[in-house]
């Protein structure tokens, strides 16, 4: 027997540290730059728990939780998109177009509508809005939509392409219902809904971080266990099965993970579109054949894109900040077109 | 018997693709599966591999029913090469062949030296040792075909189902694959069932031959006996005859082309 050939391309050692460094750098930028100018020395002091009360409050209560929420949401959307693209073998798969976001939107709209009448009929006091419930409600709505798509798909034994189409169709219906609801309703709460719909990190607090964190931890720690099944799910079902994979079980597991990540993030920050679509493409472009790099790059790039996107929105808009969802939509389109030209 | 099935019937919607199919393959036997396009060869192989659930009948591997075995259990005993498999775009030959070890390493175990050795052997046997780093989309049709054969070999299963393994290969590699099949069966005792269109190659490589026509088994036996039946002319709707070229070789089917018998007018 001759020497075993090198069947896995070795990744250059500097690749992952560099992407981590870029992620850390973008987080630091986001901490140090803001609408309120705070001297770097004060920021450093605040981070260590000293300094003026104002700086501490801005950094620790506003900027930091907002950045962390964005980071986690970025990871969720990017990883969810990557998994979805792998298992549906559709390069355009993205939780924000495949029903999960729309399910969350409908759930949140319904929830706001119902609470108007249940909590305090006749009044429209904004102060009493049950905003604290939105992440949970959105996440449940997103997961429910995911479950509907899954059931539809497997009842009919549909292939991955059909699942994508099914997801888009279910998403379109849910979206239409939600929009109809909003249009026919017109209460003062529409502002909250619109803010949520545009995908925003405005006023996200530690509560939101704590909501997302369990999903992130569980989701990311499941990924190493799914590594090989994800590799095999990229083949046609008969091929994956003949290599020895219990296709349906592993497909369901991966889909459930992807939906949970996406739904929890949508619940907290609203549908930030394109992150789940573009970040995995960027990661693949950078990684080339070094498959092992795709996942770490997806995670770090997810952080970078959302953090910098939100920073741009804060700085560009000044007092009237531009929501991150708008930023990703505007910058996402040219990036997407550029990527599509490079991908055969 | 290392692989057998009895009374297998498969329908796609309303179309009956396979009717009451029987097969018994002994350890180390090479079995050719022939028949016209659409006669049910691929369907039979997929049912044998447990990839489609038959309406009736059962398939067994090493005496155990395939229907109740886990996919990994099946994959450790049986490797299947589909007719026209497709792989993810950016995958390399080496990465594809590596997937063949999944049945052994599973979800968590790391690749051991014996896994790397099996991968190296599989690449070497198909002449692809120097191609491991090449992307599958940078290969010719025949090279890609060999990469898939290689992935099936890496599985190191004692039963090998090949759906037209030679169809995209030049004559040199066709013979190489047939030789490989022969060696696997004789040196390692691997049982091989192979759908193949070249009648003469089928006759010369196999121990036994199964002929399918409209989803039904028209013949099951030794190549020499098939030559004596006249079924080939009937099933494939051609004129021709079997001729004995060499004393110990199986008979060679010599097909008659219409343009040889009717001169231009
Ligand atoms: N997925 C499918 N759905 C519906 N009908 C199918 C399907 N696959 C095959 N068939 C039909 O079943 C019959 C048998 O097909 P099969 O693929 O088994 O033929 P085959 O002998 O392998 O042909 P070939 O030599 O062209 O590969 C054909 O009539 C075919 O049209
Ligand atoms: Mg076929």
Automatic annotation (TrEMBL), chain A:
SUPFAM superfamilies: ABC transporter involved in vitamin B12 uptake, BtuC. InterPro entries: ABC_BtuC-like, ABC_transptr_permease_BtuC. Keywords: Cell membrane, Membrane, Transmembrane, Transmembrane helix, Transport. Its main location: membrane. CDD domains: TM_ABC_iron-siderophores_like. It comes from the Bacteria. GO terms for molecular function: transmembrane transporter activity. This is Iron complex transport system permease protein. It comes from Chelatococcus asaccharovorans.
TrEMBL record, chain B:
CDD domains: ABC_Iron-Siderophores_B12_Hemin. It is a peripheral membrane protein. It holds the Pfam family ABC_tran. It comes from the Bacteria. The keyword Nucleotide-binding applies. InterPro entries: AAA+_ATPase, ABC_transporter-like_ATP-bd, ABC_transporter-like_CS, P-loop_NTPase, Siderophore_ABC-ATPase. SMART domains: AAA (SM00382). Belongs to the ABC transporter superfamily. Keywords: ATP-binding, Cell membrane, Ion transport, Iron, Iron transport, Membrane, Nucleotide-binding, Transport. This is Iron complex transport system ATP-binding protein. One of its GO terms (molecular function) is ATP binding. It comes from Chelatococcus asaccharovorans. The lineage of its organism: Bacteria, Pseudomonadati, Pseudomonadota, Alphaproteobacteria, Hyphomicrobiales. It is found in: Cell membrane. Residues 3-239 form the ABC transporter domain. GO terms for biological process: iron ion transport. GO terms for cellular component: plasma membrane.
